[in-house]
Amino acid sequence: MLSILIQLFITFFKIGLFGFGGGYAMLSMIQYEVVEAHQWLTVKEFTDIVAISQSTPGPIAINSATYIGYTAAGGSVLGSIVATFAVCLPSVIIMLIVCKFFLAFRKNKYLSAALKGMMPAAVGLIAAAALMLMNSHNFVDYKSIIICIAAFVSAYFFKTGIIKIIVFAGVLGYFLF
Amino acid sequence: MKQYLNLFISFFKIGTFTLGGGYVMIPLIEKEIVGKRKWINDDEFTEMLTLAQSAPGAIAINTAVFVGYKIKGIKGMIATVLGTVIPSFTIILLIAVFFTEFENNETIERIFCGIRPAVVALIAVPVINILKDNNFEIHIIAVAAAAAIAVWLLGVSPVVVITVAGLCAILYNTFISKQC
């Protein structure tokens, strides 16, 4: 139990520390660590958590840390607490440093260059998260592909809300599969 | 004491009523801490937003740390961070307890069978939106594509990708382009 808590702490600290570009960019990091490196979750379970995170309030990083902490520690609230604490800790440390040295940071040319380079990479990470989830676990047959395209069209062109899309896809899933 | 409580309540509200993550939260955060509470002014808010988006981690947490620390130091920061985290923590914990019980339920499985491909689409949408906001600039597309391929097909860790991108940008700016 202690070793899994330590692993959860290290993993989510790393996710918080390198999670540039916000929640979606952090997804590929979470997937890489949690599904591939540690195998705490299957691809299907991971996708379900993303769906749940998108339909519940709060940042996706916090939501997945809380959920994965619980399941990885064998259904223990302690796992949730450790993972959630660990994913927030880098933010707290870095933002406190930034607050103290506000101007020095803003004008630092190396830092602003690094951030400029990280932005497009973070976009790539979001794309990677979507691509990694396009697999036979999540796409059972042609019906899955139709749902995916329909969801994309309504979100991108018609700006339909996330929850509406998820609820509608869930209803379709119930009747189609 | 009242001030700590106010900080906690404001961020608890922000944590409770914002669906869909950081970017959706921004207007609500602005309304609450700039408009209603007047803890920081408009200019400070814009600057804070740049910092919160540049720093790693969830934008909501970064914002909470900034505002809490600015108003009431470390203790204020603890109040705002707890306020932001507690709503999602509680809701997700309840779902986790419920979901691990019903995960193998046939009805739930069918519903999620429909949801999973939609989730993939919902993750892809912001990619296109961000590229569009940057006028589909070729440099950005090239770096994004390289990063996506590295992680997706070559199995490179996203941590490595983000670090390399940052270092390359520093080298490029120092030795090739002298604009900065």
Give the key terms.
heterodimer; A: 177 residues; mainly alpha; 9 helices; globular; B: 180 residues; 7 helices; 83% helix; flat
**Low-pLDDT sequence parts of chain A:** none
Q: DSSP helix count of chain B?
A: 7
The biggest sheet of chain B amounts to:
none
Which series of helices and strands of chain B comes N to C?
A: HHHHHHH
Q: What is the gyration radius of chain A calculated from CA atoms?
A: 18 Å
Q: Which stretches of chain B are poorly predicted, pLDDT < 50 over at least 5 residues?
A: none
What's the overall average pLDDT of chain A, rounded?
90
Taken from the alpha-carbon principal axes, the silhouette of chain A is globular
Which two chains touch over the largest interface?
Answer: A-B, 106 and 98 residues
Seen as an oligomer or otherwise, the chain set is heterodimer
Percentage of β-strand residues of chain A = under 5%
Structure in words:
The complex is a heterodimer of chains A (about 180) and B (about 180). Chain A has helices spanning about 1-20, 20-35, 45-55, 60-70, 75-100, 100-105, 110-135, 140-155, 160-175. Chain A is mainly α and about 180 residues long. In chain A, α2 packs across α7 and α4 runs antiparallel to α5 (about 75-100). The relative contact order of chain A is 0.13. The mean pLDDT of chain A is about 90. Chain B is an all-alpha fold and about 180 residues long. Chain B has two domains: about 1-100, no CATH class; about 135-175, no CATH class. Chain B has seven helices and no strands. Chain B has helices at about 1-15, 20-35, 40-55, 60-100, 105-135, 140-150, 160-175. Chain B is flat and about 50 Å long. The termini of chain B are far apart. Chains A and B meet through α1, α2, α3, α4 and α5 of A and α1, α2, α3, α4 and α5 of B.
